[in-house]
């Protein structure tokens, strides 16, 4: 299942990167509503003025929260964005940490990386770099080296959430923070019942809120706080499961 799911995820997001059509993919509301990527992005809490200041081609409407709103980034900080897609949160972060800081976006889908790098190049972002990696296996970033890790609607797509949170814990500096937006469900699907398509739709890979938080704690994080919580999908498309969007902050203990 793991490899099959990963291949499907790469295929799905590769297509979205090439076509810009994200209809039906982890978006709020029903599939086929025709919400533009910008409308879908505003609906999940992004600041319109901040969105106007980043490359418009980085806005695909495939997030489920707005982690950068809660990250309180300072000039000079080093930030990693996991599952960076076309770069929306990486560019928002880069504008906040300015040229004395640095943002590293990580993605496993070649087409997304290409799109994100093109966005950076064409818009003169010298403080952003996009690296290829599988975030649950090995985030290509040194141990204890970053101030903040952010992620938007990605960890639900991984097949081992605990390993992903362990990787995040490894790369954060002591005292560093993780702020992730993600989807959780009121009823998990077992590995053998999971459907690869529904996994790509951010539904079948979702954990319950309790097991999500437990995985964060088991990875070694402290001070786990829910910063935002909103109903995301409720209905047929989810097999009657309720899908909730959470934004969670957790901190790596100081040594
Ligand atoms: C729903 S999209 C979100 C993209 C971006 N965060 C945004 O809000 O626009 C999920 C992204 O995560 C990437 N992804 C999924 N699983 C991954 C993994 N295990 N390692 C690295 N990237 C992954 C996909 O390629 C895709 O670009």
Beta strand %? 15-25%
- Write out the strand line-up for the largest beta sheet, numbering strands in chain order: 3-2-1-4-5-7-6
Quote the average pLDDT.
93
Helix content: 25-40%
Structural class: alpha/beta
The name CATH uses for the topology is Rossmann fold
Number of helix segments?
8
Largest pleated sheet: 7 strands, mixed
**CA-atom Rg in angstroms:** 17 Å
Poorly predicted residue ranges: 28-32
CATH architecture: 3-Layer(aba) Sandwich
Secondary-structure element pattern, one letter each:
HHHEHEHEEHEHHEE
CATH class: Alpha Beta
Query: Into how many domains do the coordinates divide?
Result: 1
How far apart the termini lie comes to 38 Å
* Shape assignment: globular
Strand tally, please? Answer: 7
Task: Tell me what the structure shows.
The protein has helices spanning 2-19, 37-43, 48-52, 88-97, 110-122, 161-171, 196-200, 209-218; strands at residues 78-82, 102-107, 128-132, 146-152, 172-185, 222-234, 242-251. The protein has 8 helices and 7 strands; from the N terminus they run H-H-H-E-H-E-H-E-E-H-E-H-H-E-E. The model is unreliable at 28-32 (pLDDT under 50). It has one domain: Rossmann fold (3-Layer(aba) Sandwich), CATH 3.40.50.150. The structure holds S-adenosylmethionine. S-adenosylmethionine binds at residues 9, 13, 26, 60, 62-63, 83-85, 88-89, 106-109, 112, 134-136, 152-154, 157-158. S-adenosylmethionine binds next to helix 1, helix 4 and strand 2.
């Amino acid at each position: 299942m793991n490899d099959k799911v990963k291949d499907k995820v790469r295929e799905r997001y590769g297509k979205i990167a090439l076509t810009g059509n994200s209809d039906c993919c982890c978006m709020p509301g029903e599939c086929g509503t025709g919400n533009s990527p910008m409308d879908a992005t505003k609906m999940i809490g992004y600041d319109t003025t901040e969105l106007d200041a980043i490359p418009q081609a980085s806005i695909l409407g495939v997030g489920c929260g707005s982690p950068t709103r809660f990250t309180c980034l300072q000039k000079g900080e080093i930030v990693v964005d996991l599952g960076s897609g076309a770069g929306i949160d990486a560019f928002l972060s880069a504008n906040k940490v300015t040229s004395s800081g640095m943002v590293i976006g990580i993605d496993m889908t070649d087409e997304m990386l290409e799109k994100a790098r093109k966005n950076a190049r064409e818009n003169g972002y010298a403080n952003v770099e996009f690296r290829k990696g599988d975030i649950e296996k090995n985030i290509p970033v040194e141990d204890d080296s970053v101030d903040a890790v952010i992620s938007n609607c990605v960890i639900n797509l991984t097949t081992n959430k605990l390993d992903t949170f362990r990787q995040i814990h490894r790369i954060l500096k002591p005292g560093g923070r993780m702020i992730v937006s993600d989807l959780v469900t009121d009823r998990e699907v077992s590995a053998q019942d999971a459907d690869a398509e529904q996994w790509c739709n951010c539904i079948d890979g979702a954990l319950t809120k309790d097991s999500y938080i437990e995985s964060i704690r088991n990875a070694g994080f402290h001070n786990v706080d829910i910063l935002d919580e909103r109903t995301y999908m409720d209905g047929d498309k989810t097999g009657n499961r309720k899908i909730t969007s959470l934004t969670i902050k957790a901190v790596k203990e100081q040594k």
